[in-house]
Request: fold
Amino acid sequence: MSRQILWQYGTSGTNGSGDNQLYYPLAAFPLANGNVLITDHYNHRVIEVDRDRQIIWQYGTSGTSGSGDNQLDYPFVAFPMANGNVLIADRYNNRVIEVDRDRQIIWQYGTSGTNGSGDNQLYYPFAAFPMANGNVLIADRDNHRVIEVDRDRQIIWQYGTSGTNGSGDNQLYYPVTAFPMANGNVLITDYGNHRVIEVDRDRQIIWQYGTSGTGGSGDNQLNSPLSAFPLTNGNVLITDLNNHRVIEVDR
Reply:
């Protein structure tokens, strides 16, 4: 393997919001049309760029935070949906929004600018992913929970005790991603507990990597993991933030 960079967006070592510039990008996903969807955290925007490094779509006003029309406040993860829309975890606005190509919000969970754990409330959501049943799975970080909500904004499943952190039964400590798996289970990156867990619909942990509550780099250890995704071969890909590594682990 030659290890050549085949494409890049952003000027190495330089932050900004101009042509070919980013400021603390947190996530990027490939699109079916060959473009790339980027969450540009400190620029308060989500952008779609083509292979010629042109921005062809943007949500959020570059460099300006807010909760009004076409505004975000430190977005964390933006994920492309099958219908062509984009699902954005808008962290400091305490909301998850689905926006269309015309930059209209067509669905929202969370009350803009207000944190909480009550009806239609979130507290610094980090990531949201669409599910096959049409619902949305949200990692509600500072509420120490993962919730599945339907289009009517009802919570129909939850893992974690709202507002209480821990590593015991049905407890999380700053979950940052939660990804729906093909088998119906949920893969959760439990940042504060230094672990990645797979939980079933009955809230049972059926697989874990990492020693609960203990950070490290040894066997079966993580140090503040930031994301985990299931691979087609059955393994799990983990971004192990404070160990400065990405690892693939088997089942």
About this structure: Residues 60 and 71 are 4 Å apart (CA to CA). The chain has a mean pLDDT of 96.
